[in-house]
Amino acid sequence: SQKIEQNSEALNIQEGKTATLTCNYTNYSPAYLQWYRQDPGRGPVFLLLIRENEKEKRKERLKVTFDTTLKQSLFHITASQPADSATYLCALNSGGYQKVTFGIGTKLQVIP
Amino acid sequence: DGGITQSPKYLFRKEGQNVTLSCEQNLNHDAMYWYRQDPGQGLRLIYYSQIVNDFQKGDIAEGYSVSREKKESFPLTVTSAQKNPTAFYLCASSIAGGNQPQHFGDGTRLSIL
Most buried of A28, B1, B36, B42 (most Cβ within 10 A)? Predict the structure, then answer.
């Protein structure tokens, strides 16, 4: 069966360190993968998109990698800040180019 | 500012009632989506529309209905046939054609009285 797995447990990290979040998938062949941030009681906010032919994408303190052999994407936040505390969702296209499926998300807590 | 507006933020439904959740966007996006979010589960797609007057069922369409009469609007009706409607409902829009980020509203939380 198809699965998207993100660490369901919260990730606690010290301010200033690099946070690394994992998204693994099974039985998908996504053409692209997206990462979103969601704060409590709010809708997700788009952060980054990476295509299957791209190994890495960066935006300010954010970096995403995409390994189609390992079927994994890693999401890094460098020099993490308490304001980065949120739930981070990965999403990949499934069943057609426009439809995406979301993972459960990983809750990140950055401790001052 | 462009964006997506969902209303109301909180909604209560009595047993046997249909309720309609509003979603309006002024981003000029062709594609719109409805998701349901439950604790411990990812967002699940209910319905999506790629163009006015056209929509497709998502993964959990049973007990829901939609319409897309205007580009800006994509209302979702939760019917009495939906036996477990308590959830956080999210509407999104995007440029059509895939490979595009989705812009989300801030959701409607539906509860059963």
Answer: B36
In three-state secondary structure terms, A38 is strand
Q: If you average pLDDT over residues B44-48, what whole number do you get?
A: 95
Q: Determine contact: B105 vs chain A, CB below 8 A.
A: yes
Exposed, middle or buried: residue A61 (CB in 10 Å: 0-12, 13-18, 19+)?
middle
Quick one: pLDDT at residue A29?
Answer: 86
Cβ–Cβ of A89/B43 closer than 8 Å? yes
- Tell if the CB–CB gap between B107 and A43 is shorter than 8 Å: yes
- Render pLDDT for A6-54 as a digit per residue (tens, 0 to 9): 987 899 999 999 999 999 999 988 889 999 999 999 999 999 999 989 9
